[in-house]
Amino acid sequence: MLLLFTSLSNPSNPSSPAFNLSTCKLVNLQTSSCNNCHPGALYHTLANDGKARAGVLCTDNGEIPTPAFMPVGTSATVKTLSPEEVENCGVKLILNNAYHLYLRPGTDIIKQAGGLHNFQNWRGAILTDSGGYQVFSLASLNKVSDEGVNFQSHLDGSFHFFTPECVIQLELSLGADIIMCLDVCSPYPCELPRAAVDNQRTLDWAKRCKTAFEQSNPVYPWRRFLFGIVQGSTYPEIRQISAQTLLDLDFNGYAVGGLSVGEPVTAFRDLAQFTVDLLPQHKPRYLMGTGTPEDLIAAIGMGYDLFDCVLPTRNARNGQLFTSTGKINLRNAQFADDFDPPDENCSCYTCQNFTRAYLRHLFAAEEILGLRLASIHNVFFFQQLMRRAREHIISGDYYPWLKTWLDNYAHCFDY
Amino acid sequence: MLLLFTSLSNPSNPSSPAFNLSTCKLVNLQTSSCNNCHPGALYHTLANDGKARAGVLCTDNGEIPTPAFMPVGTSATVKTLSPEEVENCGVKLILNNAYHLYLRPGTDIIKQAGGLHNFQNWRGAILTDSGGYQVFSLASLNKVSDEGVNFQSHLDGSFHFFTPECVIQLELSLGADIIMCLDVCSPYPCELPRAAVDNQRTLDWAKRCKTAFEQSNPVYPWRRFLFGIVQGSTYPEIRQISAQTLLDLDFNGYAVGGLSVGEPVTAFRDLAQFTVDLLPQHKPRYLMGTGTPEDLIAAIGMGYDLFDCVLPTRNARNGQLFTSTGKINLRNAQFADDFDPPDENCSCYTCQNFTRAYLRHLFAAEEILGLRLASIHNVFFFQQLMRRAREHIISGDYYPWLKTWLDNYAHCFDY
Which letter does DSSP use for residue A368 in this model? Predict the structure, then answer.
């Protein structure tokens, strides 16, 4: 028996693939504020406050209010959490890693399962990265040519070859709603000549990805959207070339890559602002791999809509919780008899039901439940941050709120 | 702020400690079948089928239909599961280990938290073992005298001394509904002289436990019940002495210890039957540390009411699932493309939402969610087994059902 998970409702109808805007509740509710509504558009702006935007991504697997933070589900699971727990944190869009899933369990298994949504029983939307970042950071002996990249699996040393075309086919087979082009992410620091070569290859590959995407047949009965990735390391002139070329290719959305890779915070902020200003108003803007709460709300203030990072889940597994008054580490002995909730201002499952003392005990005893309860809190905290940011963009006081929020957070007693 | 968890309803009223039978729904519903109803009784038989009994344990933290299987929550958490998940599996009574909790986080912390129920946010009832089994199996350099047992912590090598009196105080401070006497569990095999000495010490300690229990002041506003433990290794004559002495001491319930410690299955079954026949009808009978589904339903057929074992949760974490047609191991490659639920006859959360292929992937990728989903299934499976057993005792066809169940289970393709 093949489990069909009928509860996973995909509102799309294969016989009428054109998106009907009337199904998008968020846009309908505030349609007068949306200045780029047209049938089939992925992104709609609902409010602006300075450069900050509140909007919605309309996918066939749900509407995602923006700004939005995607928890990372590397291997088709947001580590330690069930899909219901992720959903209950308010998440409507997760990121899965194409590289990891290609290697294990393999594309065929996920295709047989009916795609990633069915495989992991996730009722929301999914974005897959292209695997490019992992090929360059995790795999060994990777060798890039104009054609693609040869690499050895970090799991078993087996040899593989990714081309822009086969990565698009991989991502389409996985069945995400939003897929990313294969790119070359320059390391930091990076000399200008190498950054230019990496970027030119990224642009050549983006063009091939776009062609492969347009020529592909639908694998699943929901719409798929393709994002281009702006690279260019720390060089504004290369980032400008990158953005312009990608804009000419007309992607459904634009990501900014190659930041949050070790550069100083001032360089990160300058480059993030410079690059986002190159991107069009009517397309979603995704800052890849960011980040800390303070970087996220800064980037929202610059005009970014979409983010992903392993920070909330990875740090949770190390015992670090993000709270409204800063970070705390649950392993600290001072929490042994602290019967307050982890964050008094938080309404997540963990804070509503458990004390710091209990969580500290779970971490001390190396009990798996501790990793989960910490992950629930951190994922919720990041979603709550996005909700608050959105509310304040809509109410037009985003920047004063940002300052107040940072002041509280920077009390930040980092245990 | 001290979290009080008002949702954890303890129906007891400190000003009227006498238990009101009218609050016990299970007994009221079928009160005519209960031949030992009297106010304050912990256990009520509701149906007999041969030696098998269906009954109810009436605690101030909930009614527990019997036969009942207690999942083990060693360190105040049933490993990998949240309290809600344990509850959703149908569990109304869990076991926590006094030895582990005494060492970590320590009795004071749990007392400050308002007891074990509050500490771990468990809305059902709790039984704590005495720690005796762990002192003899886990701790090093343990040295027994008539007074008590000296041991070194398996965690940090620190020295500790358990007496029957201090163990009762420990368990009362932890706040369980049902607590166990400190006993000496003879190993297997065990020469008769040693078994006799161990048993005599167990009996001396039982008497001291009873006295300490009766002289203790209430720590929490719910009733506590004390169980004696029948020892005697593989020697029926010692078990007879043990049972008779404990019966004279009049405990709230009786446990049978020293079985499931490595003896052959025939010895286990003969001794389990011999010993349970020595116990009174109107008290609950607890077979400690058992066990496999086949041993559980055999023991229910002998007249046991209560069980605990780490088997469902420990085996789950090793990838082994108990299903209606036998055991399967999720790590097996044959499940890689098996899109059936783990057990087609199971209505647990895992079987309703995930496939064998997904679970196999989670285990292959060493994802923590896999351990949890497997644990949910196994805990549910054991609870379901108890529910079925109870139904068939009530309907009077327990033994034919047992045979049919075993036939299906013994198809038992053990991957």
Answer: H
Q: Between A293-302 and A398-411, two packed helices, what is the crossing angle to 10 degrees?
A: 170
The distance between the two most distant Cα atoms of chain A, rounded to a whole number of Å, is 62
CATH numeric code, A64-314: 3.20.20.105
Going by C-alpha positions, the residue among B306, B244, B294, B247 that lies closest to residue B269 is B294
**pLDDT tens digit string along B228-273?**
999 999 999 999 999 999 999 999 999 999 999 999 999 999 999 9
Residue A123 touches partner B, C-beta closer than 8 Å: no
Is some CB atom of chain A closer than 8 A to the CB atom of B338?
A: no
The set of long-range contacts for A332-339, using a CB threshold of 8 Å and a minimum separation of 24, is: A332/A360, A332/A415, A334/A415, A335/A359, A335/A360, A336/A360, A336/A361, A336/B105, A336/B109, A337/B108, A337/B109, A337/B112, A339/B1, A339/B2, A339/B3, A339/B112, A339/B113
- Among residues B60, B295, B305, B308, the one annotated as catalytic is B308
Q: Where are the domains of chain A?
A: 64-314, 315-411
d(CA A87, CA A120): 13
CB A238 within 8 A of CB A199: yes
Q: Please name which of B93, B94, B104, B162 lies closest in space to residue B130, comparing C-alpha atoms.
A: B162
Q: Please, which residues have CB within 8 angstroms of residue A301's CB and are 6 or more apart in sequence?
A: A50, A51, A52, A398, A399, A402
Instruction: For residue range B27-37, list pLDDT tens digits in order.
Output: 554 443 455 55
3-state secondary structure of A334: helix
* A375 contacts chain B (CB < 8 A): no
User: Taking the model in full, what pTM does it have?
Assistant: 0.93
* Mean pLDDT by groups of 10 residues along chain A of 415 residues: 33 37 52 56 97 98 98 98 98 97 98 98 97 83 90 93 97 98 94 97 98 97 98 98 98 97 94 98 97 96 98 98 94 98 97 98 98 98 98 98 91 45
Contact between chains at B109 and A369 (C-beta distance less than 8 A):
no
Does residue B248 carry a catalytic annotation?
Answer: no
B368/A6: higher pLDDT: B368
Q: ipTM score here?
A: 0.92
- Residues B196-221 have a mean pLDDT of 97
DSSP B216: P
Query: Exposure of B175 by Cβ count < 10 A (0-12 exposed, 13-18 middle, 19+ buried)?
Result: buried
DSSP state of A32: G
What pLDDT, on a 0 to 100 scale, did the predictor assign at position A135? 85
* Min Cα separation B282/chain A (Å): 38
Question: Hey, which CATH number is domain B62-309, 3.20.20.105, 1.20.1250.20, 3.40.50.300, 3.40.640.10?
Answer: 3.20.20.105
Catalytic annotation on A305? Answer: no
Are the C-beta atoms of A43 and A305 separated by less than 8 Å?
Answer: yes
Chain B contact for A3 (CB, 8 A cutoff)? yes
A25 by Cβ neighbours in 10 Å (0-12 / 13-18 / 19+) ranks as exposed
Distance CA A398, CA B350 (A): 42
Helix ranges (H only) for B44-147 are 83-88, 98-103, 107-112, 116-120, 132-137
Contact A92, A155 (CB under 8 A): no
A60: left (phi over 0), alpha (psi -120 to 50) or beta: alpha
Q: Please report the DSSP string for A255-276 in residue order.
A: EE-S-SSS--HHHHHHHHHHHH
